[in-house]
Amino acid sequence: MAFNGGSVFLILTFAAVFTAGQGVFGLVTVASQKRRVNRRLQVADRVGGGLSNLVVELRKQRGLNAAGERSGWRWLSDLIVRSGLPFEPRRWTLALAGAGAGGGVAGAFLFHSAVAALAGLGLGASVLPVVFLKVCAARRDKALGAQLPQALDIIVRSLEAGHPVPTSIALVGKEMPDPIGSEFGMAADEIAYGATLSQAVERMSDRCQHPDVDLFAATVRLQERAGGNLTGLLKLNAETVRERHKMRLKIRAASSEGRASALILTAAPFLVALFLQLSSPGFYGEVIHERFIQVGLAVLGVWMGVGNLVMRRMIDMRI
């Protein structure tokens, strides 16, 4: 295949423009990463009045009271703390109202019924926020597992340089981005505020509720009670966390087909029902009041739920 001068010029022009675009994107990305600091440092720059005010403000933003304890429903409080989202009651109330209104409008539009509108209102104000918090918590857990080995490496290098343990933990809070930077920063602030090392690490483990962070907290408690070389223990801890992270990735890759099948099989009936409702509202509307149809749909829903539980047990492998 022969290329003329014009084709070669166009190819070279495209390559030059593509390379320049990649260079600009890389510079912007690196610059934004270097300017990025974790939320704790931002709060520390904004809050005045000393360390006590900083500790209290950080706890309140995580949904905790001034003493660092949870309030309200335990499971909901745990979910809020694990999500890492700033706890702002006024903004969260407006978001709940908006989600409920959106669910009510969607129910009324799709089914043209006041009962459906009320059901959509309830689902939008209760189920959707919980699902959103669960997604945020899962994303944060994944980031914690990926960042923890780097944080442990920083602590190990700092200890080998002769720094005390609180200084090494505070260094992670300054150098690492969220979420690990804020967690270790809060632990360093609590140590400076008067807590012991084991107490601060235990509170961090309670906030994160991540198995790798629990392992780190157990390592610190073991060294504090039994003695030994903390640097060597943390090196072994970091290697263990890396191997566990690799194993999770292998498990996720091995179970990807099952997860995709479960998603498709679960979403297909609802997508088909939504399409039929929009294209031909009378398709189900004319027979939905029949007892046989109602019982049949309920049985199918229960059977689908059982199938989803079985598929979840098949692909939910934990280490």
Short structural summary:
By secondary structure, the chain is mainly α. 82% of the residues lie in helices and 0% in strands.
Characterise this structure.
With 319 residues, the protein is mainly α. The protein folds into two domains: 32-254, no CATH class; 255-319. Helix content is 82%, strand content 0%. It is globular.
What keyword list fits this structure?
319 residues; globular
The helix/strand class is mainly alpha
The biggest beta sheet is recorded as: none
Oligomer: single chain
Please give the number of β-strands. Answer: 0
Question: What's the mean pLDDT score?
Answer: 85
Helix content: over 70%
Total separate domains? 2
Helices, by number, come to 14
Please tell me what the overall shape is.
globular
Strand content: under 5%
Residue ranges: pLDDT <50 for 5 or more in a row? none
- H and E string: HHHHHHHHHHHHHH
Topology at a glance:
Elements: H1 5-35, H2 39-46, H3 51-61, H4 74-83, H5 89-111, H6 114-160, H7 165-175, H8 180-193, H9 197-208, H10 211-226, H11 230-254, H12 256-279, H13 282-285, H14 291-315
Helix pairs in contact: 3-8, 4-6, 5-6, 6-7, 6-11, 7-8, 8-9, 9-10, 10-11, 12-14
